[in-house]
Amino acid sequence: MAYLPPPAALTWLFLLLLLEGWTGWRPNPLPPAAGPLRAQEPKVLQGEECEPHSQPWQAGLFQGNRLLCGGVLLGANWVVTAAHCRKLKYTVRLGEHNLQNKDGPEQEMAVAQSIPHPCYNSSSQDHRHDLMLIRLRRQASLGSKVKPINLTDRCAQTGQQCTISGWGTVTSPRENFPEALNCAQVKIFPQKQCEAAYPGKVTDGMVCAGESSGADTCQGDSGGPLVCDGVLQGITSWGSDPCGRPQRPGVYTNICRYLVWIKKTMGKRG
Q1: Which segments of the chain are extended strands (E)?
Q2: Residue 237 designated active-site
Q3: What average pLDDT does the structure give for the chain?
Q4: Residue 26 Cα distances to 22, 72, 126, 179, angstroms
Q5: d(Cα 41, Cα 238) in Å, to the nearest integer?
Q6: Which of 53, 130, 221, 237 is catalytic?
Q7: Which of 18, 82, 113, 265 is the most buried (most CB within 10 A)?
Q8: Which of 85, 198, 170 is CA-nearest to residue 132?
Q9: pLDDT score of 161 more than 50
Q10: 46-99 per-position pLDDT tens digit
């Protein structure tokens, strides 16, 4: 950038101050949290805005107004998300659709306890056991727009059609975060195809889903739901960078492999 002598610099400053006073202009706020690596803070690519409150179990993890991750409501005071989304301090929002507009059902909940899966290793980059339960400090007010989802009772089947949702970036690698919750349709990949896409990185605690259109989760979607036939089958965990490569699908924590731990943990703590 060319050096501006002091008079010119003062002129520009004066003009900017006038612009701010006349139009209410402010610099763009910081985007939702998203690190350089998708696995650290993994919109739904090739999706579209969800019908408002059609995913009543969708939760969001926030620090102030800063989106950290998605989450899924399992009970009046329980949310499940990805373990890599854990922070020292954050809140959980329920009943959200457009993050800039309030239409009634929104609830912001304090966190009583964050419980990562005991085998999750935060210092490892292998994404194993990327699952965490959040116990809310109080019970959510439930209704048609804030409602827990049922857990699966069996593993997803190859080719099964599922829905993904989140407020994550709608473009990749350049990030563009939407205000409204976005949804897309994906299909479950054969496990061998999933393993071939990411050699040595996929375990039976993971399941892959994608679509030839490039529909995919991306930065900001971590911890959000993979819903198949109305039940929770997966939690957004990691995938390719950039996102949306048809032969390199999104990878989700495979909920069917963790049912015993989830139910036991929720049962113990009520």
Answers
A1: 48-49, 58-63, 66-75, 78-81, 91-94, 107-116, 132-136, 150-151, 161-166, 182-188, 206-210, 225-228, 231-238, 250-254
A2: no
A3: 84
A4: 11, 34, 41, 18
A5: 9
A6: 130
A7: 82
A8: 85
A9: yes
A10: 578 999 999 999 999 999 999 999 999 999 999 999 999 999 999 999 999 999
Q: Is 97 a catalytic residue?
A: no
241 is annotated as an active-site residue: no
Catalytic hit among 114, 165, 172, 222: 222
**What are the beta bridge partners of residue 162?**
186, 228
Q: Return the bridge partners of 48, or none.
A: 183
| DSSP one-letter string for 109-133 | EEEEEEEE-TT--TT-SS-TT--EE
Model's pTM, two decimal places? 0.82
Q: Which of 84, 97, 117, 129 is catalytic?
A: 84
The Cβ of residue 161 has, within 10 Å, a number of other Cβ atoms equal to: 12
Task: Name the percent of the chain lying above pLDDT 90.
Answer: 67
Question: Can you tell me whether residue 81 is helix, strand or coil?
Answer: strand
The CA–CA distances, whole Å, from 19 to 6, 10, 202 equal 20, 14, 53
What Å distances lie between residue 224 and 4, 19, 81, 109, 121, CA to CA? Answer: 48, 40, 6, 17, 20
* DSSP summary character for residue 256: G
Q: State the Cα–Cα distance between residues 40 and 218, nearest whole angstrom.
A: 11
Q: What is the pLDDT of residue 153?
A: 94
102 residue type, one letter: K
- CA angle, corner 205, sides to 202 and 211, nearest 5? 60
pLDDT value of residue 44? 61
